[in-house]
């Protein structure tokens, strides 16, 4: 009886071997990786997967590669463009997803702790994904605007950005260390009066704009008679139009690549006057806790 049992087990082992199964988890099929389906962020996601060593991309595509610019899949993966706001819900279905901090942090993901790899976004003119403050080109050298940019580029604003948004945003400027356990409470509880001050209307989009309260606090502490009035827009195509037409004085909602595309498409006479923040994309997975383990879920293509 034991001999018969051993023969049966041996036969099963042969069958599993022929089918390509292994004792440590079965056949390593192609794995799916979700990426944002909008143009700019999809390009950024492709660059991130390239830096992760999963694909190779045509260098001539620069910062804006498309799927067609992928020259080699180093690992057996399928890149699935998906609506950005739905990517967190796919972490249990896909091997990994490239997610913007705007959608990652609300579900408790912290890039420095949970991401397999974070988009590298160095400061400087070469980085098209640094967010910016924009003015009309004719007014870009106004002293009052320079004071606002300088107030933004302070340790208080930097520390507030990091702590308030749980690393969804990083300061895109150099700053000295600022140590305060109550920086978020101090800024969130701050109020300012517009009485006797020059009002500067700043166009913004979305809900993550509380850092402007920190900017206002710095302006007030510096004795500047400037009051920042935020003007919220419901769509990203509106603030540049409003700025160009003079309905607002500045806007702060976009990165350099988007500004350049808007200027080219619409002919706006507007210019960047200062960097603000970086909102990096990160690669997350519920099936692997490191980049190497993600790669081990599948096989190399050669």
Question: How would you sum up this structure in a few lines?
Answer:
The protein has helices spanning 2-19, 39-51, 101-104, 111-114, 143-152, 155-164, 183-188, 211-221, 238-245, 256-266, 291-295; strands spanning 31-36, 55-57, 70-73, 77-82, 96-100, 117-118, 130-136, 170-171, 198-205, 226-233, 250-255, 270-278, 281-284.
Characterise the protein shown here.
The protein has 302 residues and is of the alpha/beta class. It is 33% helix and 23% strand. A 6-stranded mixed β-sheet has the order 8-12-7-11-9-10, sandwiched between helices. Helix 5 crosses helix 8 and helix 6 packs antiparallel against helix 8 (211-221).
Work out the helix count.
11
Quick one: biggest sheet? 6 strands, mixed
CATH H-tier superfamily of the largest domain: Periplasmic binding protein-like II
Helix content: 25-40%
Mean pLDDT: 89
Element-by-element helix/strand order:
HEHEEEEHHEEHHEHEHEHEHEEH
CATH class of the largest domain: Alpha Beta
Structural class: alpha/beta
Strand line-up across the major sheet: 8-12-7-11-9-10
E-strand count: 13
Number of domains: 2
Low-confidence stretches: 1-26
**Cα separation of the termini:** 44 Å
Radius of gyration: 24 Å
CATH architecture of the largest domain: 3-Layer(aba) Sandwich
Q: Within the CATH hierarchy, at the fold level, what is the topology of the largest domain?
A: D-Maltodextrin-Binding Protein, domain 2
Strand content: 15-25%
> What general outline do the C-alpha atoms trace?
globular
């Amino acid at each position: 009886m034991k001999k018969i049992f051993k023969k049966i087990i041996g036969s099963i082992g042969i069958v599993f071997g022929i089918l390509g199964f292994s004792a440590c988890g079965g056949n390593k099929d192609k794995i799916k990786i979700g990426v944002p389906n909008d143009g700019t962020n999809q390009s950024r996601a492709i660059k991130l997967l390239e830096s992760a060593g999963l694909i190779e991309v045509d260098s001539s595509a620069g910062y804006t590669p498309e799927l067609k610019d992928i020259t080699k899949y180093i690992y057996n993966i399928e890149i699935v463009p998906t609506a950005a706001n739905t990517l967190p819900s796919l972490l249990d279905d896909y091997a990994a997803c490239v997610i913007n901090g705007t959608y990652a942090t609300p579900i408790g993901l912290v890039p420095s702790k949970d991401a397999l790899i974070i988009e590298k976004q160095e400061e400087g003119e070469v980085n098209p994904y640094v967010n910016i403050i924009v003015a009309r080109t004719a007014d870009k050298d106004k002293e009052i605007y320079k004071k606002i940019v300088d107030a933004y580029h302070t340790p208080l604003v930097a520390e507030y950005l990091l702590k308030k948004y749980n690393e969804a945003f990083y300061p895109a400027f150099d700053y000295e260390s600022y140590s305060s356990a109550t920086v978020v409470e101090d800024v969130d509880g701050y109020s300012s009066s517009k009485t006797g001050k020059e009002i500067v209307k700043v166009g913004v989009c979305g809900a993550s704009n509380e850092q402007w309260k920190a900017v206002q606090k710095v302006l007030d502490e510096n004795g500047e008679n400037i009051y920042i009035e935020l003007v919220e827009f419901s769509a990203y195509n509106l603030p540049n139009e409003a700025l160009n037409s003079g309905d607002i004085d500045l806007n702060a909602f976009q990165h350099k690549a988007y500004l350049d595309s808007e200027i080219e498409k619409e002919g706006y006479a507007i210019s960047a006057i200062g960097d603000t923040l970086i909102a990096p994309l990160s690669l997350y997975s519920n099936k692997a806790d490191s980049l190497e383990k993600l790669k081990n879920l599948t096989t190399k293509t050669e």
